[in-house]
Amino acid sequence: MTTADKYRAAGVDLDAADQAKQRIRAAVTSTHTPLTMGGFGSFGGIVRLPDDVDRPALVMSTDGVGTKVLVAIAAGRHDTVGEDLVNHSVNDILVHAARPLAFLDYIAGSLLDVETIAALVDGVARGCRMHDLTLAGGETAQMPDIYHPGHYDLAGTIVGVVSADAALQGDRVRPGDQLVGYASSGLHTNGYTLVRRILFEELGLEIDSDIPGVGATVGEELLKVHRSYWSAISPVIAEVNALAHITGGGIAGNLSRPLPEGCGARVERSAWEGPPIFQVLQDAGGVDAAEMLRVFNMGLGMIAVVPSAGVEPVRRQAESVGVKTWMVGEIARGEGVVIAG
């Protein structure tokens, strides 16, 4: 038995890893921009800083898509979660007014199928191309002693750039600023452990079952791609005083993050209507309203803190790219976030 055969027998297939690298080459290189240096397969990705950013500061974020990957595995569809990952990451640095520059992905699992890896990277690359974002590198790890057969995890790191003078850090927020809420596409990438328990275990649905009152199957609804707010917000970022990406922790947990001392927020729950999946989960799972607001985005994927004079251009830009907005509250003197109504 050769060394490669022994390693394969132990659960790691080096030949499959090499095949996967060749399979994803075209997807990775399709994301390269004029700022990309070097080619496919380098030890590290090299990307130049853009010349048009004064006093450049780097903004970095790492995240994953959580147990949404288990839905992708059940559905046999692996290309959407890669796009989820990129969009989520872009939103996280958009909060600081940063422009996407480079992305690194990490795929870990048991003995990974070449086509599964290719589909995951295709999704990541598609998200990168949508944002002129270089997929500068990544890692694929086979760890059969850690992951169940057929299971994997997907994570990534994004690097963005912003002028140090233009970075949003919450210091511009003032009492009287208005809260503009941006519609989510659905669940995005949070709360899936609870979602799966309610739909699969408590309601007894299958991946291809229709969800009552939603108008979509479980797979269709749960694999809706996490919305990117880049095109809705970046052209009018100068009008915005702060942003909150509504992810784990819900509206209160995330809107509180950019608020400076002495500023609180009042959010009117009746000001917007979320997708029907949230009501289905609340009713079927017996989840109280407070927990729903803490776990899920409830139909708002991003909230912008905007001075009154900037509200009209901010909302007009969102609507021009098909993103619905609502006036959902305002900043007031005080501390914390109150959700009323």
Number of domains: 2
Unreliable stretches (pLDDT < 50, length at least 5) are none
Q: What is the CATH class designation of the largest domain?
A: Alpha Beta
The arrangement of helices and strands along the chain is HHEEEHHEHEEEHHHEHEHHEHEE
Structural class comes to alpha+beta
Radius of gyration: 21 Å
Rounded average pLDDT: 94
**Looking at CATH, which topology of the largest domain would you report?**
Phosphoribosyl-aminoimidazole Synthetase, Chain A, domain 2
Give the biggest beta sheet.
Answer: 6 strands, mixed
Instruction: Supply the CATH architecture of the largest domain.
Output: Alpha-Beta Complex
What shape does the CA trace take? Answer: globular
Element layout with pairings:
Layout: H1 3-10, H2 14-29, E1 36-37, E2 46-47, E3 56-64, H3 68-75, H4 80-94, E4 99-109, H5 114-130, E5 134-142, E6 152-163, E7 178-183, H6 192-202, H7 218-222, H8 230-233, E8 242-245, H9 250-255, E9 263-268, H10 276-285, H11 289-295, E10 300-306, H12 311-320, E11 325-333, E12 337-340
Parallel strand pairs: 4-5, 9-12
Antiparallel strand pairs: 1-2, 3-6, 4-6, 7-10, 7-11, 8-10, 9-11
Helix pairs in contact: 2-5, 4-5
Which properties best describe this structure?
single chain, 341 residues, alpha+beta, 60s Ribosomal Protein L30, Chain: A, Phosphoribosyl-aminoimidazole Synthetase, Chain A, domain 2, six-stranded mixed beta sheet, four-stranded mixed beta sheet, 12 strands
Verbal overview:
The protein is α+β, with helices and mostly antiparallel strands. It contains twelve helices and twelve strands. It has helices at residues 3-10, 14-29, 68-75, 80-94, 114-130, 192-202, 218-222, 230-233, 250-255, 276-285, 289-295, 311-320; strands spanning 36-37, 46-47, 56-64, 99-109, 134-142, 152-163, 178-183, 242-245, 263-268, 300-306, 325-333, 337-340. The longest helix is centred in the middle third of the chain and has 17 residues, at 114-130. The radius of gyration is 21 Å and the shape is globular. The model has no long low-confidence stretch (mean pLDDT 94).
